[in-house]
Structures are given as structure tokens and as C-alpha cells.
Design brief:
hpI Integrase, Chain A, three-stranded antiparallel β-sheet, DNA polymerase, domain 1, mainly alpha, 2 domains, 57% helix
């Protein structure tokens, strides 16, 4: 089997021009499978080598099940991908059916979104050494609007002043490529922050012009917003790994915890499927469990 693994690795490097690290990873993964088969006596010959023709789907399942005890699912997925590629190569080369063809990868782990607590949001918004400078007023408008309306960062930087209705407190998020626009509420603090930024803009604002700009009047990029948030998080002593999407997660979680229904949150976030919105219930359930443990005499 070792010889066939080497033959496969060489073919992979030639045919797909795969990176050296990728080829090495596949070689290690397949060698690990071989080690498992030898240790368990699966498909073993008398001399201790592995009879590849005797490897079946159950043996590979046993290997993956053993791996699941200690490895992350992403590791198991990668190992199975290497195994499937190896046996496809053998099938193409020798006409031998692949025993891994019907095997499915384990589902990806669903990580709970990183969020800020409400008091942490307040710290983030109130941390600035020079709060009346144009840059500080713009940055506050960015953070207030992201948290207030749950916008994606791309939606925020795409806003024009005509999209904000100050009178009724709504923001129109315009979607491209035939997708439907949506209208989202925006809170008073965010509206006030936007007004303050508009008054302080170094370049005069226009009705059809961008809301979030650099100090030269050009539309700000999503990368710039990420950098602004990272700097403000560091200044506030908060988790610097939070992204602008984390404020969107915070918006949804805080709304849900306060009693908002999932359908309304789905509409405000612009999710096509309710299943996407439902992941926020996991965060809320954890909070309910903690409240229960602290409050119930027989929890």
C-alpha cells in the first residue's frame, strides 16, 4: 500500500500541480489510514502488509469513527477527502471500484457566533480619545448603525443618504442582481450619530452620495470598516477577534433575548431561510439555561 500511496502522491503533484503541503497532507492522511488497518489487523497479509483489494467501506468507517474520538470534524473531512481521492485514482488506473464512494463526510461543526454583551457594546461605542473629531464621529456612526440595524458590512458601506429616512427611522438596503430591497428600522442613537457625522463630513454630502466615506469623500471599503472596529475594540479592551459581522450577531441575539420573534429578525437580517436565523436560538437557549441554574431552587 505504501508504494501505491507514493504513486498517487506523485500523480497528484503532476496532474493538479497541487501545492507541496497539500501533497504531503494527503500522503500523511493515507499513511495514517494504513497504520490503523495494520494495527487492527484489517486487510492484513501474513507479512504485515496491507492488501488494498481487501479494504472495504466498513474498514474505512471504522477508521473514521476512531478518528472522530480525538480529531476535529474538519480533520475527519479532510482525511475522507484524501481517501476518496486515492481510491478514485486506483479506480481510474486499474478499474477497481472504490470502497469509499458511498461514504459521506460528517457534518461541519456549527460554532455559536461571537457576540458582545450589551454593556460591552456600550463600552465599544463610548471609547474614543477625541470624540468630536470627524473620524470619531464617522466611526461612531458606523458602529451605531451596524449594531442598531444588523446590517452586513457590505450593506453599510453601500448606503447612500437617500436610503436613510430620518423621519420614520428606517433604512432601505438596496440589493443587486435582482434581489429584493428590504427596509430595516434604525434606532435614535444611530440616527443621531449619522446626523452628527453628516454635519462633520469634510467633503459636503450629497443626497445620492455615500453615507460612509473616508476623510477625502470616497466611499469607505469593508476592509477599512474592519480595521476601524479592530482599533476600537482594542481601545475598549474587548475581544479583538470580533468582526463587523459580530455586531450583526449581537443585534440578532439581543433582539431575540428581549422577546423579538424569529420571523421579524429574519426579515430584518435579510435571511432567505429561517433556518439561518434559527442558529441565534442556540445562544438564547444557553442564556435561558444559565438563568434557570441561578434562579430555580432545584435546578
Amino acid at each position: 500500500m505504501l508504494e501505491e500511496i507514493e504513486s498517487f502522491a506523485s500523480a497528484l503533484a503532476r496532474a493538479s500541480r497541487a501545492a507541496r503541503n497539500t501533497v504531503e497532507a494527503y500522503r500523511r492522511d493515507l499513511t495514517d489510514l494504513r497504520g490503523f488497518l495494520v494495527d487492527r489487523g484489517f486487510a492484513a497479509r501474513a507479512d504485515g502488509t496491507v492488501d488494498i483489494a481487501a479494504i472495504d467501506a466498513d474498514m474505512i468507517r471504522a477508521y473514521l469513527a476512531d478518528l472522530m474520538k480525538t480529531a476535529k470534524r474538519t480533520t475527519v473531512q479532510r482525511r475522507l477527502s484524501a481517501i476518496k481521492s486515492f481510491f478514485r485514482y486506483r479506480e481510474a488506473s486499474f478499474g477497481v471500484p472504490s470502497p469509499a464512494r458511498a461514504l459521506r463526510s460528517p457534518k461541519s461543526e456549527r460554532h455559536l457566533p461571537t457576540i458582545l454583551q450589551k454593556e460591552e457594546v456600550e463600552r465599544l461605542l463610548d471609547t474614543d480619545a477625541n470624540p468630536q473629531s470627524p473620524a470619531a464621529l464617522r466611526d461612531r456612526a458606523i458602529l451605531e448603525t451596524l449594531y442598531s440595524s444588523g446590517l452586513r458590512v457590505s450593506e453599510l458601506v453601500g448606503l447612500d443618504w437617500r436610503d436613510i429616512d430620518q423621519e420614520i427611522g428606517m433604512v432601505t438596503v438596496r440589493r443587486s442582481k435582482g434581489n429584493k430591497d428590504r427596509v430595516v428600522p434604525v434606532g435614535e442613537p444611530a440616527l443621531e450619530a449619522l446626523k452628527a457625522w453628516r454635519r462633520a463630513m469634510p467633503v459636503a454630502w450629497e443626497h445620492d452620495g455615500p453615507v460612509i466615506t473616508n476623510l477625502r469623500g470616497g466611499r469607505l471599503t469593508t476592509r477599512s470598516v474592519e480595521n476601524i472596529l479592530a482599533r476600537r475594540l482594542a481601545d475598549a479592551g474587548l475581544d479583538s477577534s470580533l468582526t463587523p459581522h459580530g455586531l450583526r450577531h449581537s443585534f440578532a441575539t439581543h433582539m431575540l433575548n428581549a422577546g423579538a420573534d424569529l420571523r421579524s429578525i429574519q426579515e430584518m437580517l435579510g435571511h432567505a431561510s429561517l433556518a439561518t436565523t434559527q442558529r441565534y436560538t442556540h445562544v438564547s437557549v444557553n442564556r435561558l439555561k444559565e438563568v434557570y441554574r441561578r434562579a430555580h431552587p432545584r435546578a
